[in-house]
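Repro case for the chain-ordering regression, as requested:
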Amino acid sequence: MRGKHKWSPVWMLVLTMAVILTACGGNNGDSSTGSSDVKLTMWHWKVAFDPGFKAVADAFKAKTGITVVTQAFTPDDAYRQKLTGAASAGDMPDLYAYWAGPLEGAFDGKALEMGPELEKDAEWKNGFLPSALQGVTVSQANLDTWAADEKSSDWKKERKVGQIYGVPLDVGAFYTIYGNAKLLKEAGLEAKAPATIEDWIDTMNKVKEKSDVPGLVFSAKTFTLYENWFMNFVDYMKNGEESFTNFMNHDEKLSDPNHIHAIKIIEDLAKSGNILPGSVSLDIDPADQAFAQGKATYDIGGTFTYASLVAMGMNPDDIISFRVPAYADSKVPDAKVTPFPLVQMVVTQGGKHQKEALEFVKYLTSEEGQILYANGAFDLPAVKINDTSKLNGSLQAMAGSLSSESNWWSENSAISGKIGQPEWQTFHADMQKVILGNMTAAEAAEDFDKAAAAEKAKAQK
Amino acid sequence: MKNSFSAMARREAAAGYLLVAPAILLFLLIGLFTVLFSIGLSFYHLGQGSLITSAKFAGLDNFQNFLFGRDLNLSRAFKQALVNNLWVLLSTLVVIPIALAIAVMLQRISKGIRLYRTVFLLPMVTSSVAIYYVWQGIYEPEGTLNKLLAAIGLDSLIAVNGWLGELHTALPALIVTVIWGSVPGMMILYFAGLQTVDPHLYEAAEMDGAGAWQKIYRITWPILRPITVICLIMGMNGALQIFDPVWIMTKGGPANATEVVNVLVYQQAFVNGDMGVANAMGWSIFVLTFVLSLISLRILRDKSE
Amino acid sequence: MKPSAIRKIPLYAVLTVWGALCLYPLLWMIGASLKDPMDVMSSYSLLPNGVWHWDTYVDVWNKMKFFHYFLNSVNVTFFTILGINVLFTMAGFAFAKLRFPGSNMLFLGFLGMMFVPGITVMVPLYLTEHSLGLLNTHLGLILPMVNGSAPMALFLFRNYFRTIPHELYETAKLEGAGILRILYRIYIPLAIPAIATITIMNFLGSWNSLVLPMVLLNSQHLYTLPLAVMLLDTGVFRQWNVLMAGSLITIVPVILCFFLLQKYFIQGLTSGAIKS
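-- result from build under test --
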């Protein structure tokens, strides 16, 4: 059954070429070069924020005639890859969103330095919440960290205190505990914020006794969630600035009596059955969902968690929230949580439409733009909103609960931020073992101190 | 005679190069630079958010970091990850006989062969990402598996923190998913191979008085051998390069119990932004897989050649 | 016949159990796609409690511009598979049947590509494609996919061509047939099982590919189905029912295609077995 077709290789090659050309031709779809209007491309990675961006882009177009096309790429890692590739290849979008932080997403000078622009436009600069702007400004502690890191680029090491390469888009805060008021009332308890951690644990035990609901759920799977949404602030409150700084710099040990609480509380809660089984394999959303379904009395979260809980169908009347409690013997039990920027907007340096891109960022971070954005994205604005009634309900309430005054904690984010370093991954793994009952707090502390010493020795090399 | 022979040999060689050329050209176009660049990066320091142009030469630092304890924490993580990879690799040895057994059984039945085959291919067809979420649901603390165990009275076996949540069950549970997903590909290869065996050959062998084992050795095995080599290499590569199921189901947790090298590579590259170490790790695993594959090729080599 | 039928009962039993294991996750997906979003993770019954939400599919279909993304996926997958089969039957034949200096080294070199760490080379690949002007094109997806399948395809084709008796080649050569003619007249028709296998395996890889298009494509109108499904993953939390419905819409063409292809697959297998 030989076919009659002559499958000559020449034909095959011709076919292949034809195929290649066809496939090539497929991408000439929407290059509208004829239009005289400027068209800006903006990249980001938060699909949920897209309605917010679109609302601002529409208003901006009505004002200026400039079109802004927003494109979202998910998940986070793919977005990071994409931008890293684009930056190295030199074909960046006109502007993009990036995780907020000094020099984040600046790609060794691919980003426009915003500092001078902010100086030129006092109204714009003064509109930002001080702590929001602080969160994206290069500090001495940042420079020290980069100088000690063999991987830091020369460009990074040459930066100066006070430089800004991206302006905050939104703010949020960790260190928020959510409680299920219904469960508390059913156990005959008052639904209110506990005065201390001791009180808090006591409440958990009471609920557990009455209704067998474990006290706490959180995403113990997510690295730095417990560490950076709860533990570092508790340690700061308990021991004060100096001892906390020493702890973060490994001049004081986890096994020291004043820091051991960081892992001991996990051991105590796990032993008393107060951590929801399965917490070590829960991501953030499923953990919040478990809380919303009443599987645990409390949930560790941030300001942004509230919106999720309501969206997950939890009755707002059943939710109480409070700042993480402090131990009774704490040095700064009344420390205020300040909001910090979560996302920043970056403009590409020397882009074709740099001026227009900057103009859009200015509009996006103006009071008017931020109200449009916040309502569309359900995100807290990074600027002062004089007429908060323009924000929708729960945003209003949350914005009101945050202090915008700058303080020690907000000024020293580089210190608390050390929680992301490799030795803390050891801590995180050991914490999971403690939750699962495969390790004791004392063993975990000893293991961490070893890892911390190794990391410190490496930095000094 | 000799002259014409060498002319023919030359023509044959020319044809050989011509036929291989398109594949080589494609590799030169798309693969070579990518690969060289990636290898090069493993000898450079490249921090979070830095441009590739500002990378600094690091010599063997990156390799020393994770292989020889220059970075203690990273070395520990790498060692654990490698051990887990080897456990997954051992599971390949289970997959191959399962795949072969199912292929043989499938060939033996007369009715419904097509229906069964279609169903057996489903794990391969269903989109990987979605299916790992499903498995996650099965393994959850209140998931199907625990509920099933409770229903049949085996409460003592229940994994309270979920099958992916306990230190000693997480990796085995993950491996079961991997086995489930990798059987169909190998099964269909074996099935295709068995189909090519001419039944007349068996009859002829029987007439020659060959026993069952002899038939398998003389007729079936020569067909199955190259397939087994493919399965072995595929399985080995799959085991050492495993990423998707781990990333989606456990991200290496709990407490690194399911950490594998590629997850570590990914975390280093795209979470910690350290492209240098990530590439160094990736290429170290490349060398390991390559060597192991050569060994298995040697062992299963065609002795008649 | 009877005793043999009885002997086959355990065979059917084992295969049915395995079949159930293969089927279960798919049934779970279908169930999840029809459930109320709140119900998906809280109950482990395969069927929805109460209302069956067929409307989810309507929503997903309308939101997704499914047909457009479907065509994109077809485009990419079709040309990827074509490229793989054309390039690697040629090269596989050369490695199996022709003697030329360095052929073993070349073959091993291609084989070695299998172990290239796919994740780490993503950024270097982006840069390569940028310099070739291939970014944000379907061709830019097809070429690395074809290249990436080289080891598997070459290995299979070479092995397969080797199982075909060498006498066929010698006879044809003595009759004066050119090498290319031998390949396309004799070997390719005999290699249909191998081609079918390679096609099936790469169809899936290309159809479900997620990370590659995510990194290499910018324009939404070029997106393939898995990216379109990811666009559904919006909102404050993951809507399982929507995501599963989207995934199923993506999977159904693959299952249908498999169902259709199986026939030719069998034909290919049988024709490959007749060696006369």
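Ordering looks correct now. The radius of gyration of chain C is 23 Å.
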